[in-house]
Amino acid sequence: MTNGTRIVLAERPHGEPKDSDFRFEEFDLAEPGPGEVALETLYLSLDPYMRGRMSAAKSYAPPVEIGDTVVGATVSRVLTSTVDDFAPGDVVLGYAGWRTHSIEQAKYLRKLDPEAISPSTALGVLGMPGFTAYAGLLTIGKPQPGETVVVAAAAGPVGSAVGQIAKLKGARAVGIAGGPDKVAYLKDELGFDAAIDHRADDFKEQLAAATPDGIDVYFENVGGAVFNAVLPRMNLYGRIPVCGLVANYNLTSAPEGPDRSGALMGAVLTQSLTIRGFIQTEFAAEQMPRFLEEATQWVADGSLKYREDITDGLDNVPEAFRGLLSGRNFGKALVRVAE
Asked: Where does the Enoyl reductase (ER) domain start and stop, copy by copy (predicted)?
């Protein structure tokens, strides 16, 4: 019998998650039943949405219960299978969460080809983050040639894809990131038309210089001070796909400062703005096949570049997750659980 380790939610975090909010547990991996597959985790994904799932507050998905394994997408190797479509040694995309081994239903797995492209991309540029960028930008943002698209957290897996896809559609791409290394990466490696450090003292002035004709599409990943700087620069009929608000995820009380809801609604009215929150799953059935076809080709020909920030070992998951929430990662945050 195979021995495994999992990380369960021990307490609901108050503010930034602490080590004591998680508990490591050993378990014995059972034999797969009919229609099931036994898996060994190779990579697990770290994503901002996981912080929301640790809260009991009402949201688009049920919270992780105390004592349950923390959720998350995984790339795994098949150990044993009761299904003809999966054989030992196959590499698959699943949703095992923070654990070294799992039993999953075969109908929810997607077989990957590690010979064609690194399987870790199924958790990033060719997975949920990449599809989030693709669906949110093209369905809600609808960038047109010559328009200006601004994206926050632009060096992350979603933001970097948003900017590059905007360029592929003929728009200008302006990225907002934290730190000179990330700013340089956006301009020099990803080909953004402009990139700005939101930590700079003159951030608002740099944003104005980078968007002389205003902003047509703002892809929101952050919220907070970045959104406050962007809002006054939105053009008539501007579109704002709201993907995430990572600046708020660790807050324990309402943000300090004046109530800005009046300014927000005033801009929505006078500029005829469209602000639309979304969860990528609502577009998956219709758009996922087209995304995989287009994005796989873009990655293959170098039109869509990506970067991964890999931490080794399940033991290091809590610290890597804190780093993700504070912006310390540079690229898609992954944990390599096994070779």
From this structure: 18-335
Where helices occur in the chain by DSSP H, the ranges are 49-53, 128-135, 157-168, 180-184, 203-210, 224-230, 261-270, 281-301, 317-325
The backbone torsions φ and ψ at residue 249, rounded to the nearest 5 degrees and listed phi first, read -65, -30
- How many whole angstroms separate alpha carbon 331 and alpha carbon 268? 32
Residue 313: how many other CB atoms lie within 10 Å: 11
The string of pLDDT tens digits covering residues 174-189 is 999 999 999 999 999 9
Q: CB–CB of 9/50 below 8 Å? A: no
Q: Report the distance separating Cα 326 and Cα 287, nearest Å.
A: 31
pTM of the model: 0.89
Question: Where does residue 252 rank: exposed (0-12), middle (13-18), buried (19+ CB within 10 A)?
Answer: exposed
Spatial CA neighbour of 335 closest among 3, 96, 17, 35: 96
Q: Taking a C-beta distance cutoff of 8 angstroms, is the pair 258, 291 a contact?
A: no
- Dist. CA 332–CA 321, nearest whole Å: 12
Mapped onto helix, strand or coil, the DSSP state of residue 268 is helix
Q: What is the pLDDT of residues 112-170, one digit of tens each?
A: 999 989 999 999 999 999 999 999 999 999 999 999 999 999 999 999 999 999 999 99
**For the chain, what's the residue count?**
339
